[in-house]
Specification:
two-stranded antiparallel sheet, 15% strand, 9 helices, alpha/beta, 2 domains, 11 strands, 9-stranded parallel β-sheet
Length: 291
């Protein structure tokens, strides 16, 4: 089982003056420790489950580009970009650029988006749920075409483009991986089966059921369920001194038994590098041995 470190909070003791240096140190340590993924949220205000809205928040794609310069192995992504935040042409170009500059390590993490507060606050459009899912599906179609061989026009309900030129192309072949976040059974998981390479689900009591729903969508779409990388969001909490390590390892083993290929989550206590050192010694090798 692979592990991914998501960094959702940038309100650190040193403040903005040392944030760049501290973040680079965390990225290098996580990369050296063997984390398979390194991720940030794609939000503009802090979200309520993490902290007050006025806590420090960095723009996601500037940040993952910065992380690329301080790492060499981990895959880089957002968990998760709202499709309403960026025009799909800009989004596809950003991921392509990240892939080229990182040596082929970009992943597109995308979902329908939900945070009305930040959209209203900054003046971004926040369409109704139905339209957000239309935007998600059309963005997936647009990005997949832009990452294809041709540079043909694209037309959908919400987007019209004359030429999906994308040079230089991404280094990954046939293209960067697409991870679709969310557990909606009628649309989101169907989009995973139809367009995606990976899902990202919360570690909830419904997880096993959600995976069964995804499996059925794969059957309906003629897709091999085994091709989908199943990732689960779960806090990587080992306690300040590693006292919860056994508890976390037990949960990782349970998730692996349900079919999870990777677990991504925040690590309470970051930017304390001693926690990452403990993961390198006590957690990542044990997770990697799950097969």
């Amino acid at each position: 089982m692979d592990l991914g470190l998501q960094i959702p909070d940038f309100t650190w003791a040193g403040g903005p003056a040392t944030l760049g240096t501290d973040l680079a140190a965390v990225a290098r340590a996580a990369d050296d420790a063997g984390f398979a993924y390194l991720a940030v949220m794609d939000h503009f205000f802090q979200i309520r489950s993490v902290g007050p809205s006025d806590h420090d928040m960095l723009e996601a794609y500037t940040t993952v580009g910065y992380l690329a310069a301080h790492t060499s192995r981990a895959k880089l992504l957002t968990v998760i970009t709202g499709a309403l935040y960026r025009h799909p042409g800009l989004l596809a170009k950003a991921i392509t650029t990240l892939d080229v500059l990182s040596g082929g390590r970009a992943v597109l993490g995308i979902g329908a988006g939900w945070n009305e507060e930040e959209s209203r606050g900054l003046g971004f459009p926040f369409p109704p749920t139905k339209e957000r899912f239309e935007l998600l599906e059309e963005t997936l179609q647009y990005v997949l075409q832009m990452w294809g061989e041709a540079d043909d026009p694209f037309t959908s309900k919400h987007f019209t483009a004359e030429r999906l030129l994308n040079v230089p192309p991404a280094l990954q072949r046939p293209r960067p991986q697409i991870m679709i976040g969310g557990g909606g059974e009628k649309k989101t998981l169907r989009f995973v089966a139809k367009y995606g390479d990976a899902c990202n689900l919360f570690n909830s009591p419904e997880l096993e059921h959600k995976l069964d729903v995804l499996k059925q969508h794969c059957e309906n779409e003629g897709r091999d369920y085994a091709e989908i990388t199943k990732t689960v969001y779960h806090r990587l909490d080992i306690g300040p001194n590693g006292e919860k390590t056994g508890e976390l390892l037990t949960e990782l083993e349970r998730l692996h038994g349900l079919g999870a290929d990777a677990v991504l989550g925040a690590m309470p206590g970051i930017p304390d590098l001693r926690l990452i050192e403990r993961f390198a010694k006590d957690v990542i090798p044990a997770a990697g041995a799950l097969a």
